[in-house]
Amino acid sequence: METNPYKIEYVKDRYFDELERFKHLENKCGRLIVLLTIIITAFASIISLEGKEILKPNSFVDWVILLSGLFTIIAMISSWGHALLALKVKVTPLPSQSTDNLDFIYKNEGEEVFHQIYYCYADTIQELEKSTNEKADIINLSYEELAISAWALGAFSLIITLNYILT
After folding, report:
1. Distance between CA atoms of 66 and 64, rounded to whole angstroms?
2. What are the tens digits of pLDDT across the range 94-114?
3. 145 touches 78 (CB < 8 A)
4. Residues 106 and 116 sit within 8 Å (Cβ to Cβ)
5. For residues 136 and 25, is the Cβ–Cβ distance under 8 A?
6. Do 72 and 43 touch, CB atoms closer than 8 A?
7. What CA–CA distance (Å, rounded) separates 27 from 34?
């Protein structure tokens, strides 16, 4: 392999691109947790206003309201849990900084050092990409559950509203 410095710059740039993607997902996850916390708080407020009636079903409609409320809260909590899981602190893969690696670079020259540095970044990019993709999958699952909980909350609110209008 030719010791072209542009190759090292390319793998460094790729590493920093992937690191930026990782940070972007971390920020998105934090915003998702804030949004979910607000939604859960709003739902808890609705329940606290009507909790006595909702938690003691006397008719079929009351049971539908109770079950839709339970489904809504389960979907919200699941989404929130997955967002927290995605935010879980993991060690961000870094190019090798071991003493052995640094000693190798110090003691050698030319093509050997070039290969060592190149593969330190190349291997780290693969690890970081895997970690970022896992985080993205968990965040996508959380978003899907958020959409389900939003629909369930809408249905829950509609049923309660129609129940009050019609009774």
Report:
1. 5
2. 777 667 777 777 777 788 878
3. yes
4. no
5. yes
6. yes
7. 11
